[in-house]
Specification:
two-stranded antiparallel sheet; single chain; 66% helix; globular; mainly alpha; 238 residues
Length: 238
């Protein structure tokens, strides 16, 4: 049964959001096109990154907790992680949209994005010798700055709230993956390539890693929603 553990964590993470996607008030399934476009774009970036880091020993996977099916150097469970976790987080993002009609943090979302971007870029630049820290912080900081200062994305307030809520299940899932409640981790990290700061068993970089890939996915998700809304509006006028 140990071999099924990583797969089980993925499936349990997405089970309720997937089942609830067809609930008639939220109808999350209507937004799958933008969501899965964002997931595909994110995976084009993150899968090669993940594979390269695995090959370099920056992180790795415990063979006892995977099925032993690898694709381009990564366990199949790791591929599923990049589908299941963003799906669940964007579902929470949509629940927040339904529950809170007013755009939250409308005045502070962009300054927060710009301030966080600058901090991440500075820290990433200070630790270029630690690859997980530098690449994650610099990449996420650059994307945050793009959304906050250049694109001025209108959905940033809702994104920040959804991200904060997503951290709760993410810490639970990632905590188990990194060894919380287990005799050994499913995913291990080489601490010479990160800051060595752990939130329980989770490297602090993982929270920025989540922020980074959710920014990509939700950017495309929001773009798809806007197009769908515009199309429905045009059809209503015709």
């Amino acid at each position: 049964m140990e071999r099924w553990l990583y797969l089980a964590i993925n499936l349990l993470s997405v089970a309720f959001p997937l089942a609830a996607s067809f609930e008639q008030r939220l109808r999350f399934y209507r937004h799958w096109k933008g969501l899965f476009t964002g997931i595909a774009v994110m995976m084009v970036i993150f899968i090669p990154w993940d594979a390269a880091f695995t090959e370099r020993g920056i992180w790795g996977f415990n063979a006892r907790h995977t099925l032993g099916i690898d694709l381009f150097g990564l366990p199949i469970e790791e591929w599923l992680f990049f589908i299941c976790i963003p799906y669940s987080c964007v579902y929470l993002h949509e629940v927040m949209r339904y529950s809170i009609k007013r755009e939250p943090f409308s005045k502070t979302a962009r300054p927060l994005a710009i301030g966080a971007a600058i901090a991440l870029l500075v820290i990433g630049g200070m630790y270029t010798h630690r690859l997980y820290t530098s690449i994650t912080f610099i990449g996420c900081g650059a994307l945050l700055f793009l959304h906050g200062a250049v694109l001025k994305s209108a959905w940033l307030g809702r994104f920040w709230m959804g991200y904060a809520i997503s951290l709760v299940p993410f810490f639970l899932v990632n905590g188990i993956l990194t060894g919380w409640l287990l005799p050994e981790p499913i995913v291990w990290y080489n601490n010479t390539e990160n800051l060595g700061i752990r939130m329980n068993t989770i490297p602090v970089e993982d929270s920025i890693y989540l922020l980074f890939f959710l920014l990509i996915v939700i950017g495309f998700h929001e773009r798809g929603r806007a197009k769908s809304k515009s199309l429905r509006s045009d059809q209503g006028r015709s």
